[in-house]
Design goal:
The chain is α/β, with parallel strands linked by helices. The chain contains eight helices and 16 strands. Helices cover 21% and strands 21% of the residues. The longest helix is centred in the C-terminal third of the chain and has 23 residues, at 367-389. The protein is elongated and about 105 Å long.
Length: 390
C-alpha cells in the first residue's frame, strides 16, 4: 500500500490520491532504523560558508656556492636552484567545519652546493564538499564581514565551482624557486656572485560556500512543520518548537532504502514573503535550493487558502532563479490532523497543478507516500542523466 492514513479522510479524496500515485513500477521501501533516537535534541551546526585566507608557499632561494676540487680550486659556481613553493588546492569532503581559516602552503627548500636543487614543497590539498562555490574577496574583507553580511553584498567574484567529484581548484600558487649562481655562469662572468631569491607565493581571501547540500530541500514558511517532517522520516533531530524561526541553520537527514540507496533531505530555514530581496536572510536560504534535484514545498493545510502559500513559495523561487520552479516540485500538505485541514486541501486541489501529498508529520500519517515519491523522483532524475550521457 502507498498510503497509511490514520486520520479520517473522505473516501473520494483518498481514492483520488491513490490514483495519482499508483503506478505499475515496484517501489523499494524505506528502511526504519532499529536504533532508537536520542531523547535529547542534538543540534550540530552546519557550516555552509567559510572565510579562508590562503597563502601559497614561497619558492626556495638559489644558492651561491663555488666548487673547489683538489685538482682545480677554481672549478666554478655550483649553487643549485631553490625548490618551488607548494600550491594551496581544494578537493572534496563532507562539510566545511574542518577547513582552517588560514591556510599556508609549504615553502620550497633552499638550493645547495654541488648543483643540488632544493626540494620542491608538497602541494597542500584542502578538502571541501562537492558543490562548493569559491568566491575571491577583496583583501580588506575579514571573517566578521562574512558572518554579518551576505556574499553578494561583499562584491566578490566566483572563481571556482567544484560541482563534480574529483575536481580541483588551485586557490594560491606557490612561488617559483630562485636560480643559484651556477645559472648565471657565462663566458663574460666566470665567477658570478649573485643568486635569485625565491618568488613569493600568491595569497588571497576566499569565501567557500556550499550550495549543494542535499538531494531534496524542504521549503516553506515558518511553522509549516518542516523540522517535524524531517524528524519523522529520518533520524535527524532538529529543534522543534511552537514559534517561528526555530530553524536558523540547515539540518540534514538521510532516508535509507532497502536497496541500500541513501537520499539526503535538507530542512531549510523558513522563508518570508520578499525572501528574494533578502528579507529575513532569504537569499542565504534560497541558494541551498539551487542544486537540489527536487523541491519539497511544505504548507500548513490547517490555514485558510493553503494554495496561496504554495503560490507564494513558487513566486519567491522564480524571482530568485527563473529555472527553479521548472524542476520537480512536490507539495506536502502538513498538519492534516488539525481541524479544517481536509476541507482546505480539497479546495487547494482545484487551484494547484503540482502533485500534492497530505500528511501529518506529528501523528506519523502517510509518511510512506512521501519517502516513496521522493525515491521515484530520484530514480527518474538518474535515468534522465544516463540518457543524456548516452
Amino acid at each position: 500500500m502507498i498510503f497509511q492514513c490514520r486520520y479520517l479522510c473522505h473516501h473520494n479524496l483518498l481514492n483520488k490520491f491513490l490514483a495519482q500515485y499508483s503506478t505499475s513500477e515496484s517501489f523499494v521501501y524505506a528502511l526504519r532504523s532499529t536504533k532508537p533516537k536520542s531523547a535529547r535534541v542534538k543540534v550540530q551546526n552546519f557550516v555552509d560558508v567559510k572565510f579562508v585566507k590562503a597563502f601559497g608557499g614561497n619558492g626556495g632561494d638559489g644558492a651561491i656556492s663555488f666548487l673547489r676540487l683538489w685538482c682545480n680550486p677554481n672549478a666554478g659556481p655550483d649553487g643549485g636552484d631553490g625548490g618551488n613553493g607548494g600550491h594551496v588546492a581544494c578537493l572534496k569532503v563532507k562539510d566545511l567545519s574542518a577547513v582552517p581559516t588560514v591556510i599556508k602552503g609549504e615553502d620550497g627548500k633552499r638550493g645547495q652546493p654541488k648543483n643540488c636543487y632544493g626540494r620542491s614543497a608538497e602541494h597542500l590539498i584542502v578538502k571541501v564538499p562537492v558543490g562548493t562555490v569559491i568566491h575571491r574577496l577583496h583583501n580588506d574583507i575579514t571573517a566578521k564581514d562574512i558572518e554579518s553580511k551576505p556574499l553578494w553584498y561583499l562584491g566578490g567574484s566566483v572563481v571556482g565551482d567544484l560541482s563534480e567529484d574529483g575536481e580541483i581548484f588551485v586557490g594560491a600558487r606557490g612561488g617559483a624557486g630562485g636560480h643559484g649562481n651556477a645559472f648565471f655562469l657565462k663566458d663574460s662572468l666566470k665567477a658570478p656572485q649573485i643568486a635569485e631569491l625565491g618568488a613569493k607565493g600568491e595569497e588571497g581571501n576566499f569565501a567557500l560556500e556550499i550550495r549543494c547540500i542535499s538531494h531534496f530541500g524542504l521549503i516553506g514558511f515558518p511553522n509549516a512543520g518542516k523540522s517535524t517532517l524531517l524528524r519523522a522520516i529520518t533520524r535527524a533531530r532538529p529543534k522543534v518548537a511552537p514559534y517561528p524561526f526555530t530553524t536558523l541553520k540547515p539540518h540534514l537527514g538521510i532516508v535509507k532504502y532497502s536497496d541500500h540507496e541513501q537520499l539526503s533531505v535538507a530542512d531549510l530555514p523558513g522563508l518570508l514573503p520578499g525572501a528574494h530581496k533578502d528579507r529575513g536572510l532569504g537569499l542565504s536560504f534560497l541558494r541551498h535550493a539551487e542544486r537540489c534535484i527536487a523541491l519539497l514545498l511544505v504548507v500548513d493545510a490547517s490555514y485558510a487558502c493553503p494554495w496561496e502559500q504554495a503560490e507564494q513559495l513558487l513566486f519567491e523561487l522564480k524571482q530568485f532563479d527563473p529555472h527553479l520552479p521548472s524542476r520537480s516540485c512536490l507539495l506536502i500538505a502538513n498538519k492534516m490532523d488539525l481541524p479544517n485541514a481536509k476541507e482546505n486541501l480539497e479546495e487547494a486541489l482545484k487551484h494547484l497543478k503540482i502533485p500534492v501529498i497530505p500528511v501529518s508529520a506529528k501523528m506519523g500519517s502517510n509518511l510512506s507516500s512521501v519517502v516513496n515519491e521522493i525515491r521515484r523522483i530520484y530514480d527518474k532524475n538518474v535515468r534522465e542523466e544516463e540518457n543524456e550521457v548516452e
